[in-house]
Amino acid sequence: MNLSKRQLHSFLFTVECVGTGFVGLFLFVYLLGLRDVPRDVVYHSEPLFRGLLSALGVLFVVSVLIAAFLAFIVKKKL
Q1: Residues ≥6 apart with Cβ < 8 Å to 56
Q2: Cβ-based neighbour number of residue 43 at 10 Å
Q3: Could you tell me the sign of the dihedral formed by the alpha carbons of 21, 22, 28, 32, in that order?
Protein backbone atom coordinates (compact mmCIF):
# COMPACT_ATOMS: atom_id res chain seq x y z
CA MET A 1 0.00 0.00 0.00
CA ASN A 2 1.55 3.26 -1.12
CA LEU A 3 0.34 6.49 0.38
CA SER A 4 1.31 9.82 -1.03
CA LYS A 5 2.57 12.47 1.36
CA ARG A 6 -0.65 14.40 0.86
CA GLN A 7 -2.80 11.40 1.79
CA LEU A 8 -0.64 10.67 4.81
CA HIS A 9 -0.73 14.26 6.03
CA SER A 10 -4.51 14.43 5.53
CA PHE A 11 -5.03 11.23 7.50
CA LEU A 12 -2.76 12.32 10.35
CA PHE A 13 -4.43 15.73 10.46
CA THR A 14 -7.82 14.02 10.74
CA VAL A 15 -6.58 11.84 13.61
CA GLU A 16 -5.22 14.90 15.40
CA CYS A 17 -8.49 16.81 14.91
CA VAL A 18 -10.58 13.98 16.33
CA GLY A 19 -8.27 13.67 19.34
CA THR A 20 -8.28 17.41 19.89
CA GLY A 21 -12.08 17.49 19.68
CA PHE A 22 -12.38 14.70 22.25
CA VAL A 23 -9.98 16.29 24.73
CA GLY A 24 -11.40 19.77 24.16
CA LEU A 25 -15.00 18.65 24.70
CA PHE A 26 -14.11 16.66 27.81
CA LEU A 27 -12.14 19.56 29.27
CA PHE A 28 -14.93 22.03 28.49
CA VAL A 29 -17.58 19.87 30.15
CA TYR A 30 -15.35 19.14 33.14
CA LEU A 31 -14.56 22.81 33.70
CA LEU A 32 -18.22 23.68 33.25
CA GLY A 33 -18.96 21.44 36.23
CA LEU A 34 -16.35 23.24 38.35
CA ARG A 35 -17.97 26.62 37.80
CA ASP A 36 -19.63 26.81 41.22
CA VAL A 37 -17.61 24.78 43.70
CA PRO A 38 -18.67 22.85 45.80
CA ARG A 39 -21.14 21.10 43.61
CA ASP A 40 -22.27 17.56 42.97
CA VAL A 41 -23.14 18.03 39.29
CA VAL A 42 -21.12 15.98 36.82
CA TYR A 43 -21.89 17.25 33.33
CA HIS A 44 -19.80 14.71 31.44
CA SER A 45 -22.22 12.00 32.60
CA GLU A 46 -25.18 13.76 30.97
CA PRO A 47 -26.56 11.77 28.00
CA LEU A 48 -25.83 14.48 25.43
CA PHE A 49 -22.20 14.94 26.42
CA ARG A 50 -21.69 11.25 27.10
CA GLY A 51 -22.91 10.44 23.59
CA LEU A 52 -20.63 13.02 21.98
CA LEU A 53 -17.65 11.87 24.03
CA SER A 54 -18.37 8.24 23.18
CA ALA A 55 -18.61 8.96 19.46
CA LEU A 56 -15.43 11.04 19.41
CA GLY A 57 -13.65 8.49 21.59
CA VAL A 58 -14.56 5.62 19.29
CA LEU A 59 -13.50 7.61 16.20
CA PHE A 60 -10.20 8.45 17.87
CA VAL A 61 -9.44 4.86 18.90
CA VAL A 62 -10.37 3.51 15.46
CA SER A 63 -8.25 6.12 13.68
CA VAL A 64 -5.26 5.37 15.93
CA LEU A 65 -5.62 1.65 15.25
CA ILE A 66 -5.80 2.31 11.50
CA ALA A 67 -2.70 4.50 11.74
CA ALA A 68 -0.82 1.75 13.60
CA PHE A 69 -1.93 -0.82 11.03
CA LEU A 70 -0.83 1.39 8.12
CA ALA A 71 2.52 2.05 9.81
CA PHE A 72 3.04 -1.71 10.21
CA ILE A 73 2.20 -2.38 6.56
CA VAL A 74 4.44 0.41 5.27
CA LYS A 75 7.34 -0.68 7.51
CA LYS A 76 6.92 -4.29 6.42
CA LYS A 77 7.22 -3.30 2.74
CA LEU A 78 10.43 -1.36 3.38
Answers
A1: 18, 21, 22, 25
A2: 17
A3: positive
Contacts of range 72-75, beta carbons closer than 8 Å, 24 or more positions apart: 73/1, 74/1, 74/3
The whole-angstrom separation of Cα 32 and Cα 63 is 28
Q: Where are the domains of the chain?
A: 5-77
Least confident of 6-15, 33-42, 43-52: 33-42
pLDDT of residue 78: 63
Sign of the CA dihedral with 16 first, then 21, 29, and 43 last: negative
pTM of the entire predicted model: 0.71
3-state percent breakdown (helix, strand, coil) of the chain, nearest 5: 80, 0, 20
- Please report, rounded to a whole number, the percentage of residues in the chain having pLDDT higher than 90: 33
